[in-house]
Design brief:
The chain has 12 helices and 19 strands. The protein has 486 residues and is an alpha+beta fold.
Amino acid sequence: RSRGLGDVYKRQDGALFPVAERLMTDGFNVIVPFVSRNRLIGGVISDLIDPVNFSISYEEWEKLSIMLENAYLRRSLSIEKWEKEILLKVSKKLSSSASPDEALNLIIDSLKKFVRYDSAAIFLIDFKDNTLKYQVIRGYDKEAFDKKPIKIGDGLVGWVIKTGKGIIVPDVSKDPRYINRRETTVSEMVVPIVSYKRILGAFNLESDKPHFFTRNQLETLKSFASQTAVILENARLYKDYLEKKHIKRELKIAREIQQVLLPKEKHNIGSYLIEAYNLPSEEIGGDIYDLVYLMDKKLGIAIGDISGKGIPGAILMASLYAHFKSQVRESIKTEKIIRNLNNSFYDITDHEKYATFFYGILDPSNDLFYYTNAGHNPPLLLRNNGDVEFLKEGGPVLGFLRDLNYKYSKKAIQKNDIIFMYTDGITECVNKKKEAFGEERLIDFLRKNNHLAPEKIKNKLLDEIKKYTSRKTFKDDITFVIIKKE
């Protein structure tokens, strides 16, 4: 039975199929619609046949509908297969390219094999100012975007990025969201570029013809937008890799420079055996130690730790070391050395950084040890009977306030006494249960091994720490100095 155009183009819910208005405007009479699953897939249209006198049997109509549906499915599968093959070829070619611009240009040009367009662009979000910058472009005047970038939310592209939804606009002149950046554009299609639920930008196509883009083409554009997201993500990962590789190389150089600054030779003096050790962490640390022969046959011994890691901490460590070396050649009192270091460190820091520092002078001829502690882990004076004294006397850490006064103290050293100076990399290293090695465990270790020479104590302590943590490298430097009177 023949029906009028408005009737045959109605869905089950009573609404017109979107294409009906266009066909009515063009003056066509629809004689036979082909509808599958409440979806118009085609029809016989003519402006010559009188629909009132045209008839077709139900069997013929059903046969034609099935034929058209099968043809439609075969065409869809063929296009989908071809699309996947093209995308696979594009992916293989992209895998050999480290340039994201080259890859995106390949994407936008490959797309034209599926979806014709008069202009196209891939826009990416500039998160610094929340504007959209074109990455690759076809058919546009670049100056139109350079002079006035698109803001998120503005225009059809801005709306898509703000909402995360793809759109087809058959006639841009009827859409209030449209911003004219190209005089001949009539229809437009836009989809978001999404990576791990994060919108990176949008893929935009424009045509000089009305009602040009279809729902199938929208799905195709989404596939290419997904491939674009992969390219952008790979480019980001590659950039991160290069930056990390560069930083890793710089850190290696910085660690080597750090190691050059630290003393290497033995510093035994009189009846005292001395062993010093520094194990660099995975990062650049801020540990510092030094052993300096003074002019009056005494030995200056220093150890410290800069707050913070990485290159900034290493620079501060080197500066503090230089200031220390510049004034320590003579037997200046320990409290004066620390006062001068505090003022120097205060002057070179932003006052959010600080350093803990301990400086002592060993007088082997009188068996005396003078020291001043500036907020550092108190070194341990392990007496030959197993008693432990903590070398705490001094004042606050370096760098907080200028012109601070520090105190000194002195200790008489007896045979087989041990002075153990260290940074917190030892006591704060943890095992698999996140339990710190701790000060008590360190003291117990020294008591059990105080009969050994400093070199053997050093080796056994390193084995003990590695066994406790099940690690060969650490997040913080491990630095210590062992002094033992024979």
